[in-house]
Design a protein that fits this description.
about 375 residues; 31 strands; five-stranded mixed beta sheet; mainly beta; Methylamine Dehydrogenase, Chain H
């Protein structure tokens, strides 16, 4: 069944210059797991999708948030982890809420933080993936935490940081890209002359000043690293594509993309349908593949124009167009599409490695955009 969904989150887009209370807000998206955050031009953070640990709507304990709800106000930046959310407000304060069993929200002792908790001040950038998080402060210092570890300073002169399932990559002011594996004590130089980086799952990407796209990490035959037929782990960056007007990278678990300076979006990899499994505590124990919804192939292909931002969850895609509309498609078992409903295609019981009885839910009915919702 094909469905179309548009969400108006803003009518006007202004470039973000600095994190100050008077600075304009640039609308953006962020997604991970089965929930999504959308920042509008008024600084409102809209959230929807999974909410087992309170990751979508702060203060609620609903299993799913099926339609966009305001979770935070006066924000400048958003980043979604697997079951937690982070925002930077107008003053540069970093807040987070949701799952905290791996110290994702280190300022709290609660295992599930259902209202925003202040983590740090004077923050310019933040990123989250799975149970890891990182941020960069105004003086260029990069901090890394999660997966049960405390906050640690790991780099200076950073301008961007991106985390995957068990690693972080850092872009410094001089265009160098460093990587550090979780639990290790040194940063490894991976690339130079870089202009942007992105990471998700086990995938790493970097753009260089000559328009080259580099990839490394876990390759697969589904094209997730923009490579044909490769299934090996790439420990060093390999050049996979070149285009003069590349401007920004966006990465997902099994599919990724980039934006050009003409607001074009290129995609590659495979969009799967997932059966999201939770134990009795609301932990996402597994994401079981229920088949491929759509394959974009291993080579980046131009699919959309007038795109301002894109965000990729484990099994869904969200695009923010310059018009202010957000389009979503993919799996909808947790309400990721934000259209007021969720879809269960199969319901069965399974048992994980530790013997927990878990309920497994899958969805595979929505491949293309349905009914518009307007946020004022």
């Amino acid at each position: 069944m094909k469905r179309y969904f548009a969400l108006i989150i803003a009518l006007m887009f202004i470039s973000l210059s600095a994190y100050s209370e008077s600075a304009a807000v640039s609308p953006m998206l962020s997604a991970d797991g089965a929930h999504i955050l959308a920042l509008d031009s008024n600084g409102n953070v809209w959230a929807w999708g999974s909410n087992q640990r309170g990751e979508s709507a702060s203060g609620k304990a609903d299993e799913r948030i099926l339609s966009p709800e305001i979770a935070f106000q006066n924000a400048r930046f958003v980043s979604a982890g697997q079951q937690f959310s982070m925002v930077i407000d107008a003053k540069g304060d970093l807040y987070a809420w949701g799952d905290n069993r791996e110290k994702q929200i280190f300022a709290s002792q609660d295992e599930a933080v259902r209202t925003p908790a202040l983590l740090m001040e004077n923050v310019l950038y933040a990123d989250a993936c799975d149970s890891l998080a990182a941020c960069i402060t105004e003086d260029g210092e990069c901090f890394f935490w999660g997966n049960g570890a405390d906050k640690t300073a790991i780099s200076q002169n950073a301008v961007k940081c991106e985390v995957g399932m068990d690693f972080i990559i850092i872009l410094t002011k001089d265009g160098k890209v460093y990587e550090r594996a979780f639990g290790e004590g040194e940063n490894a130089l991976m690339l130079e002359n870089a202009t942007d980086i992105s990471a998700s799952g086990e995938s790493r990407y970097a753009l260089t000043s000559d328009g080259s796209l580099y990839a490394w990490g876990a390759a697969a035959s589904d094209g997730r690293l923009a490579m044909s037929g490769s299934t090996k782990f790439l420990s060093a960056p390999e050049r996979v594509f070149q285009k003069d007007n590349l401007s920004a990278l966006r990465s997902g678990l099994t599919f990724s993309g980039f934006l050009t300076n003409k607001s074009e979006l290129y995609l590659w990899g495979t969009l799967y349908s997932y059966m999201t499994a939770f134990d009795g505590n609301g932990t996402a124990l597994a994401a079981l593949v229920d088949g491929a919804l759509l394959s974009y192939g291993h080579e980046p292909i131009r699919l959309y124009e007038n795109v301002k931002d894109a965000a990729f969850g484990d099994a869904f895609i969200a695009l923010l167009f310059e018009s202010g509309e957000v389009y979503t498609w993919g799996s909808n078992d947790q309400g990721q599409l934000g259209n007021g409903s969720y879809t269960l295609i199969s319901l069965l019981e399974a048992e994980d490695d530790e013997g927990y009885e878990i309920e497994v839910i899958s969805s595979a009915d929505s491949v293309f955009p349905n009914i518009p919702i307007t946020i004022k």
